[in-house]
Amino acid sequence: MTSTEIKTNDRAASPATTVRRNGGGRRIDFAKSAPKVFRAVIGLDAAARAGLDPTLVELVQIRASHLNRCAYCLHMHTTDARKAGESEERMHMVAVWQEAEHFFADRERAALALTDAVTRIGVAGVPDKVYDRAAAHFEEEELAHLLALILTINTWNRIALSTAKRAGTDER
Known about the structure:
globular; 60% helix; 9 helices
């Protein structure tokens, strides 16, 4: 294995997958190469957040970034969560929220379960039980915003991973 390869043992990936990282070759700067698309995603992100609790927004974004293995977004959203007043303890527990339920309110657990299902949609879709649980905790408009937020963070994760963004180099 070269220094540009990383061995992973993720349940979502096949047993031992080799992920190639940017080995010195340049990747596009997405914002500069597709500015209209980049601004559209920013607009979707801003619209999705409207009316949602800022702490919940960050928990959802942290969880999706864990699942997608996006260190760039994980670093960004844990930084933002701290600024929003989130505790270190809860941020650490997001990765294992199902086993640490007592750290999160019912509403947060419903949002995290929906985040898991939508982010891993190719595995089992979004089960009715998960959707119904979220619908029981969020009004229809809030639920639509939550879904948009989950879709948006998954888009950002894919942009960051595809363009080999490095954690800690947030240019916002």
